[in-house]
Write a structure and sequence with these properties.
Blueprint lengths: L13 E2 L27 E6 L23 H6 L10 E4 L12 H10 L26 H8 L3 E5 L12 E3 L13 E3 L17 E2 L1 H10 L5 E5 L14 E3 L2 E3 L1 H21 L2 H4 L3 E6 L14 E4 L8 E3 L5 H11 L45 E5 L3 E2 L6 E9 L5 E2 L2 E6 L12 E2 L9 E5 L11 E2 L4 E8 L10 E5 L6
Parallel strand pairs: 2-8, 2-11, 3-13, 4-7, 4-8
Antiparallel strand pairs: 1-14, 3-12, 5-6, 9-10, 11-12, 14-16, 15-16, 16-22, 17-21, 18-20, 18-23, 19-20
Helix pairs in contact: 2-7
Length: 489
């Protein structure tokens, strides 16, 4: 996976992988593995709102999801032996992304960027509100773009606003096909891609388009789906909501409306070829209510042919960073590595919310469904100087120390290159994967004919030669980063 390598001197080896903090490796295409291992197909994430999975017994508002009579469909998914639970796993130790990570908006930003950047507001994205993050070029959709992986952002009621960056609500919209009212409520705070310049208005569609795309086989590999604020259980409809013969009012009516929405949408996704080809549905909630500790858990339900199934309950501690890590592993992408404010530790109190080190969601799936991070070592030879040109040269050795092939392209980036050094043979400089402005070179992988052997095989080593301008008497220092997502357009 991808992060920053702590290499400062020659002949120092570093390993890429989840165990090595700060290291980033990515692969653009799926690695060929033994036929017995199946991998995740298309991803469908449905975002829900403002309810705990479990909470202390003395907390009654809002009510929790587990055992709630207003959520019969959700509870059927997590009941072993229920026909709806056959392909379901769920987390019982999913915690708030960070202490004080409220209200909703920073949690959606976190789901996209692995941090909330310390900004806690529900305001529409505006420079004056300090929540556009347009100077942060690294977020999950930007890395999907860099890898050429198609993604789509489906937002219910976005067709009733002037722009995806403007919220809109009212009572005079078209009849909602799920709750039967004319109320609508599109909230930008629930659209994570809207807060970044390169995705604010890109690939965003109304919810109705999702079902057309599902029928036509044109959904993305990664699909973010946000119901409006009535169907995501955030807000109560005027007059409450009648569900399965019971009339609910107040917050229970919002839970019932959300459960009703899921009971209709999830089966439609499950019936599609995209889901049946090892797809995965994630029913995701934004934040804990009433406390940011381990006594307040957030619902997280996974539905997939590759889930352990029969309402398997995972007790592995996870949070929003776990989702990013998992889908980055599924698509063989670099991890986002945006800084987390130092006071925003996770609910366990040990700072366990950085994407690189957090648990992924692999315990919810059958073994092998979530790819194991590739491991690559980087070793540098000694510098030598051409006496005629006074240029400095250095061999760098890149070795696959893992058990699976690393697909091409493979790039070696030189981060924090000392100011006295100029690399003369770069292929470019990083512009989509931070740190930006680092020179990088190509690593020769395969024979270049484009067939399946375009990989760095386990135990295989490739060599690149770096050439620098005469550095004088000063040392040449840099950190190394191995990537296989092209780090510039």
């Amino acid at each position: 996976m991808k992060m920053k390598l702590p290499v400062h001197q020659t002949n120092k080896t570093v390993l890429l992988g989840a165990a090595a903090a700060g290291i980033l490796l990515a692969a653009q295409t799926a690695t060929a593995l033994p036929f017995t291992v199946q991998r995740i197909g298309d991803v469908f994430l449905i975002a829900m709102e403002n309810h705990n999975f479990t909470q202390p017994t003395n907390m009654t508002s809002p009510q929790q999801i587990l055992g709630n009579p207003a959520a019969p469909y959700l509870n059927s998914l997590i009941t072993p032996g229920n026909s709806n639970a056959v392909q379901v796993s769920y987390a019982v130790a999913y915690y708030n992304a960070a202490i004080h990570d409220h209200p909703s908006e920073p949690n959606y930003v976190w789901a996209e960027a692995g941090t909330d950047f310390g900004v806690h507001t529900d305001a529409d994205p505006r420079v004056a509100n300090g929540n556009t993050f347009y100077d942060q070029s690294i977020h999950f959709a930007s890395i999907l773009n860099a890898a050429g992986i198609p993604w789509k952002d489906y937002q219910e009621d976005v067709d009733l606003t002037s722009s995806p960056t403007n919220s809109a609500s009212g009572t005079n919209g078209p009849v909602n096909p799920y709750n039967g009212t004319t109320q609508f409520n599109y909230a930008v705070k629930h659209n994570p891609m809207a807060f970044f310049a390169d995705t604010a208005t890109a690939n965003v569609y109304p919810l109705a388009q999702f079902f057309l795309d599902l029928n036509n086989g044109t959904v993305g590999r990664y699909n973010w789906i946000t119901p409006d604020q009535y169907n995501d259980a955030h807000s109560s409809l005027n007059g409450g909501f009648t569900y399965q013969g019971v009339h609910y009012t107040g917050d229970q009516s919002s839970i019932a409306a959300g459960d009703n929405f899921l009971s209709q949408v999830v089966p439609q996704i499950m019936a599609s070829p995209e889901y049946q080809n090892n797809g995965v549905i994630i029913i995701w909630w934004d934040e804990s209510e009433g406390g940011d500790d381990t006594n307040h858990t957030v619902p997280e339900i996974i539905i997939s042919p590759l889930a352990k199934g029969n309402a398997y309950a995972s007790s592995v501690p996870v949070n929003h960073s776990s989702d990013i890590k998992t889908w980055s592993e599924v698509f063989h992408l670099p991890f986002v590595n945006n800084p987390i404010p130092t006071n925003e530790t996770d609910a366990t109190g040990i700072g366990y919310n950085n994407v690189a080190v957090v648990n992924d969601l692999s315990d919810l799936f059958v073994p092998g469904a979530i790819p194991t991070p590739e491991k690559v070592s980087v070793n540098r030879g000694r510098l030598f100087v051409d006496p005629n040109t006074h240029h400095a040269f250095q061999y760098v050795f890149i070795t696959n120390t893992g058990l699976t092939p690393v697909p091409a392209p493979v790039w070696l980036a030189l981060d924090d290159l000392s100011a006295n050094a100029t690399l003369l043979n770069p292929a470019g400089t990083t512009s989509v994967l931070a740190p930006l402005g680092s020179p990088y070179v190509g690593v020769p992988v395969g024979d270049g004919d484009g067939d399946k052997d375009e990989v760095l095989f386990p135990c295989e080593t490739k060599v690149v030669l770096l050439e620098f301008l005469d550095p004088g008497d000063a040392a040449i220092n840099y950190d190394t980063r191995v990537l296989s997502v092209t780090p510039a357009p």
